[in-house]
Amino acid sequence: MTTIKFWLMPNAGFESKDVIDTEIRHFSRVNPKIKVEYEILSWSRVWFKLIEAIKEKSGPDVIQIGTTWVGTLAYLGAIEKVDKKRINNAKFSDTILNMCRYFDSYWALPWFCDGRVLYYRKDFLKKSNIEPESVNSWENFRLACIRLSKAHNEGKQIPPIGFSCQKELAVLQDLASFVWSNGGNFVSDDAKHATFTSEETHQGLKYFSDLILNHLISEPSLEQNAGEVAENFFLHDTYAFMFSSTWPLQAYLNDKFKHYIGKQRAQNFGVMNVPAGKAGRFNFAGGSALAVTSFSKNPDKAWKFIEFLTQKDSLSRFCSSVNMIPGRTETHVSLNVDKPEQKVFEDSINRYGKSFPVHPLWGSIEQIAVKGIAQTLMDFRQSNFNQTAFFANITEINQEIEYMLSVFGE
Q1: How far apart are CA 17 and CA 318, in angstroms?
Q2: Domain-wise residue ranges, the chain
């Protein structure tokens, strides 16, 4: 009996253990001589634990990694290169497959994809005579929010947007939509310079800060975590818009789960792709990939486990359980939405999806950016929305990342 160790994230919330146990049982039936031991780690913890494992050259055989980590882990020699035959034998989504590529090699296999979309209240928009189709640009989105801010729902003012600032990486992913659609970016195309202070990035960040400044984003929501914002959105008639991914479908719109809001109430909620800017329509699309660590003592068995998790039957079961888009294009999963809304989620990845660069320093750049932006937004609120101070903080983030890139290039 060979034992392999697997680190993964809580992909299905409280049901994560049951979901992965199901896949391991199926795997064990056809691979009785391979035992899989696993540990479920939070996203905030796993990066630092993984860095420690790299230093000690011991740890799991198989790891679930965010697609933005591939370049860093490949550069550090922490994960094994993928044999080309493992890529050629499957039809993986180009969007997420490209995120698994560093220079001319692949270093992980796509598992599942997720994109950012805009949830909205159909009834709130209707009361304000706003057609969902009209919210197709950031300018029209702003105008819709202004109209909604003047509307009332049973005597209560409707805060147009619920937006959590408590999950730092998600904030960066949401801000990317504002920045990219305005033609900006966080690093230059050649990844040699930080571009947080470029004119295009500045305009994208200013648009977002203006939403806060003009009270179009609910101030209490900024202090809440993503779960609290979603609960207020789906259960308490609190906001008209919310940026998120697929997970609320499973939590609130799936009749099999305890938080299901009921069929009649669920009809009030819709989903659309994020608005477009002058440079086009872009949103953060990412997901998870599976990799074999370079310190695995059983790489062949580890790859066998990954190939099982990324084949159609397992993907179909798993992605149906976590309500995610599979990493293989020929594996179809019906999300808990109507067909037009299903297409919104698919388009958020395959048509409008964009990711951060696959760069050896991106893991560290990301840590600087998310911590810096979290502090910037906190200072912005505490300074009575002083935009000069806001952009002074952004400049400091840019300088820190610029220095890191310059040292790396020497």
Answers
A1: 12
A2: 2-115+285-354, 117-283+359-409
What's the pLDDT tens digit per position in 127-151?
Answer: 999 999 999 999 999 999 999 998 8
Q: Classify domain 2-115+285-354 by CATH number.
A: 3.40.190.10
Q: What is the DSSP string of 32-47?
A: TTEEEEEEE--HHHHH
CA distances from 196 to 22, 200, 209, 293, 395 (A): 44, 9, 14, 33, 7
Tens of pLDDT, residues 104-121:
899 999 999 888 999 999
Q: How far is CA 197 from the centre of its chain?
A: 24
Q: In CATH terms, are 2-115+285-354 and 117-283+359-409 the same topology?
A: yes
What is the separation, in whole angstroms, between the first and last Cα of the chain? 48
- The number of CA neighbours under 13 Å toward the Cβ of 112 is 26
State which CATH number among 2.60.120.10, 3.40.47.10, 3.40.190.10, 3.30.70.270 fits the domain covering 117-283+359-409.
3.40.190.10
Instruction: Please compute Rg for the chain using Cα positions.
Output: 21
The whole-model pTM stands at 0.87
Partner residues linked to 242 by β-bridges:
119, 162
* Closest among 344, 326, 324, 327 to 335, alpha carbons compared: 324
Q: Which helix (H) or strand (E) holds 321?
A: helix 312-322
> How do residues 16-66 score in pLDDT, each as one tens digit?
899 999 999 999 999 999 999 999 998 878 888 888 888 888 889 999 998
Q: Give per-residue pLDDT as tens, 298-326.
A: 999 999 999 999 998 999 999 988 888 88
